Amino acid sequence: MKSFAMTLLLKDDPETIEKYKEYHRHVWPEVERSIKAIGVISMQIFLLGRRMFMYMETADDFEAERDFPKYLEMDPRCKEWDELMCTFQEKVPEAGEGEWWAKMARVYNLM
Questions:
Q1: At residue 19, what are phi and psi to the nearest 5 degrees?
Q2: CA–CA gap between residue 79 and residue 64 (Å, rounded)
Q3: Which of 102, 81, 84, 103 is nearest to 93 (CA)?
Q4: 75 exposed, middle or buried (CB, 10 Å; 0-12, 13-18, 19+)?
Q5: Nearest alpha carbon to residue 35 among 80, 85, 71, 77
Q6: pLDDT tens digits, residue range 32-88?
Q7: Distance CA 11, CA 6 (A)
Q8: What's this model's pTM, rounded to 2 decimal places?
Q9: Which CATH class is domain 2-103?
Q10: Measuring CA to CA, how many Å separate 39 from each of 14, 33, 42, 91, 96?
């Protein structure tokens, strides 16, 4: 199993943040089904202020750069969801070239 930690910002607007949270209380079933189909075993998103932290566990053969584009093509609702969520989000200043959700480096792991 692989694990990923990523970060992203929500737009600095309380109403926007509340709408984003409301959408995530009722994620579209096509989105959840497709995320699982590409090899994501679990996904959690945490929020502090407007900074989001996503933690995912995936199958060993999961490759984000290869598999997330597949997710967008699995069902038209997935692309619709992604485009809608992007209206609420902003890249973090630390994001790399072409990176939306910026990958975070593990600095500690208690086993």
A1: -65, -40
A2: 16
A3: 102
A4: middle
A5: 71
A6: 999 999 999 999 999 999 999 999 999 999 998 899 999 999 999 999 999 999 999
A7: 17
A8: 0.89
A9: alpha beta
A10: 33, 10, 9, 24, 24
